[in-house]
Each structure stands twice: as C-alpha cells, then as structure tokens.
Amino acid sequence: MTTIDHSIRDRIAVAICETLEPLSDVLAGWEGGSAAFDALDGYSDIDLNFLVVDDATFDDLYAAAEQGLGIVSPITASHFVPPGRYYKLRDGGDFLLVDLSFFRVGASNHNLEVERHGRARRLFDKADWLQSRHIDEHSLGLQRHKRRVELQSWFPVSQSFVRKAILRGLDAEALAAFWSYTLRPLAEILRMRYCPVRWDFGMRYMDRDLPPAVYARFRDLMFVQNVGNLERALAEASAWGESVLGELANTLQPPDRA
C-alpha cells in the first residue's frame, strides 16, 4: 500500500480554491470522493467540486482552475468524464488524479446526499450553501423500481447473448457479453438487495456496500479462466440474479406515487 501524500493534495486544493473562490460565479467548494467517506489511501484521487451560478461558463472556470493547478505542477493530461474533468499532474505520482467538477446551483443533483456520497469536506462556502442533504427516498425509489421491473423481464432473456457466443466458439465476445449482460446487471441487483440507496453505483464500493460473503462470491464469478469456467460462472450468476430478483419482487415495493 502506497502512502498518502497529503502535501500535494493540500497544495492542489489550496491552489484551485485561491483561483476560484474570488470569482463571483463560484459559490462554494468541497472535497468529495474517498475523503467524504474517510477512506483515503495512497491510490485515491482528489475529488474537488464547486457550486456555481446557473449562467457560469464552464470553459472559463476550468481555464481558471487549470491556472491554479499549474502553480502546483505542470498538467500532463486531461480527460472529460461527465460531470467533470480529470487532470494528471507531472508531480502527482502514478496514481493521483485531480477530479474537478462544477455544479450549477439550479441543477437537481449536486452529489451532496450523505447516504450516497458521504460527508463533503468543505473548502469554502460564501453563503451557507453546503448544508447536509439527504436522499429523496421517493424519487430514488421510483427510479430503482423502474429498473428492477426492467431487469425482471430482461435479465433472464439477455443471458442468451452470452450463451450463444460460447456455443459459437467466440471466446472474447462471450466474455465481453458476460460482463455486459450478466455481471453488470447482477451488480445492480445485489445492490438493490443490500445497499438500495446506491443501487446504481455499478461496481464501485462493492466491497463496502455488500456483505463480505456476497462480495466474495461476486468477485469469484468475475475471474473466469477458460470457456468451461465461463459456462459454470454464467449458470451460477444468472440463477443468482433471478433468485434475488424474485426476493426483491416480494420485498422491495414501489414507493407510493401519490
């Protein structure tokens, strides 16, 4: 396990805040990600988020932030992954990336719900914008119910994509289909069962959100070594998914729409 370089993390946060905080379009800033869960390690990114006015120009804000980053270290790469941009710094080591996001104040989601995103670490707040927020259980429940109903019918049917790729001898296609049509939806199904507030987080945080034995079983299904092993994994994963979907149909009721 590599150690956490708090020095460069702190310098990055300070440099970007010194650039953005004076701007009238920027209302507040916070650190999220692993820091919000008290789960930092030496491989963690630094997730910096800023609340901005609705008519702010993101390109201008990113340009200003990049000036701040340049004070700490030259930027060697950047990549846009909604809702933000990743930056690689020359002096950031092999693993540290800066994940920088801007959220318009009028947007419906600021990634601040404690149950889903942890407790934000406030960097600055010009007018008490960063109040603790909790999930809208009704809205989240409707989304989850809609997806569960979809999976109830589609998950069993879609396993045929994996099976026929195996029968055709298309090993690479079969494995890709297993990931797409079996493992990814199975992760959603298991999350609905064991961590419904983060049912849509994919394979992130599964080690935290699932019981250890459930996580270990899912992990073992991922590491197939050959086509014979893939056939066994497909049979187990598809049966597991259908079984849990059956449980959810009886226990995870849709929220009241009224």
Report on the structure:
- Helix content is 50%, strand content 15%.
- By secondary structure, it is of the alpha+beta class.
- The protein has two domains: 6-125, Beta Polymerase, domain 2, CATH 3.30.460.10; 137-251.
Query: What spatial order of strands do you see in the largest sheet?
Result: 3-4-5-2-1-6
Class computed from helices, strands and strand pairing: alpha+beta
Instruction: Report on the biggest sheet.
Output: 6 strands, mixed
Tell me the span between the first and last alpha carbons: 51 Å
How big a fraction of the residues is strand?
15-25%
Helix and strand layout, with pairings?
Layout: H1 6-20, E1 26-31, E2 46-52, H2 58-72, E3 75-81, E4 84-89, E5 97-104, H3 114-117, E6 121-125, H4 137-167, H5 171-194, H6 206-209, H7 212-222, H8 227-251
Parallel strand pairs: 2-5
Antiparallel strand pairs: 1-2, 1-6, 3-4, 4-5
Helix pairs in contact: 1-2, 4-5, 4-8, 5-7, 5-8
Task: Put the structure in a nutshell.
The chain is of the alpha+beta class and 258 residues long. It contains 8 helices and 6 strands, in the order αββαβββαβααααα. Strand 4 and strand 5 form a beta hairpin.
List keywords for this structure.
258 residues; alpha+beta; 6-stranded mixed β-sheet; 8 helices; globular
